[in-house]
Amino acid sequence: MKKNRLFALLCAGALSASMLTACSGSQDSSANNASSDASTDSTETAEDTTSLKYIQDKGTLVLGLDDQLPPMGFLDESGTIVGFDIDVAEKVCEKLGVELVTQPINWDSKQMELDTKNIDCIWNGLSWSEERDEAMTLSIPYLENHMVLVVPTDSTYQTMDDLSGKNIALQSGSTAQEAFDAEPKLKDNTTMIGMDNNMSCLLDVESGASDAALMDETVANYLIETGGRNLRVMDDFLYAETYVIGFRKGETQLADAVNNALVELKADGTLAEISTKWFGSDITTVEAPAENADSAA
């Protein structure tokens, strides 16, 4: 009997020690997980204090663009990069105390160009999208745009349904491609033809190789009007979107500085002047400070 009681006591002691060890391990694991989570949260919410200084120390803001996107940013007849975005960027750089440098890039590689610091921002008719919002720090919207279809003037196409079985040209890597993939009437019933730029898309439609081109309304109207092209924009547009500026993810200090400059340019009338130069009226969407809006009223 004594042996049995002794054996029972020994087993109970071993079981208690095992439970204590397990509890201790669980507590250590929880503590480690909590520490890891806190570290992750701290990293994700760390305040950016260097991105503006980085730009100002080197004295330049390198703007990445597709130089075939009139009227936002493009090469004129003399080979100079001009456009609405370029004029606005120059004014913003004056406020930041840096020089604007324009850097043509392959639009398909824009994220890599930004992340590797070959450029400091993407500022060239960059449409807002959820994917871009996750990959970059984006500015406030400064212009509204529509995604539209361009067809020959004498064609009978009026709606997307009319384009069933046809070829649709668009710029690869652009939001036009995202719009195409998101619209079942196009994705399921037409053939996408990827091009390097929007001008190539219009030329493809003019030649008859493609039946329509999908692109930004601002670009389409400018290219048709200035080029005297026998093309028209269909009334049946896909959706409205906004233009933003893309910065490296987390570079909120630089983005805030640019946002503040845009607001100041709206308030003093500079944005309206530049917009009227390129579009005939002020179509910018940046809101002026309340005090300026009140005084203007």
UniProtKB/TrEMBL annotation:
**GO CC annotations?**
cell envelope
Q: Which PANTHER family match?
A: ABC TRANSPORTER EXTRACELLULAR-BINDING PROTEIN YCKB-RELATED, MEMBRANE-BOUND LYTIC MUREIN TRANSGLYCOSYLASE F
Q: Which segment of the chain is annotated as a signal peptide? A: 1-22
- Which residue intervals make up region (Disordered)? 29-50
Ranges where the Solute-binding protein family 3/N-terminal domain occurs: 60-282
InterPro entries attached to this UniProt entry: SBP_3_CS (IPR018313), Solute-binding_3/MltF_N (IPR001638)
Q: Say yes or no: keyword Transferase present.
A: no
Can you say where in the cell this protein is located?
Cell envelope
Where would you say this protein principally sits, based on its record? other
Q: Which Pfam families match?
A: SBP_bac_3
The entry's protein name is: Solute-binding protein family 3/N-terminal domain-containing protein
Task: Output the SMART domains linked to this UniProt entry.
Answer: PBPb
Q: Which family does it belong to?
A: Belongs to the bacterial solute-binding protein 3 family.
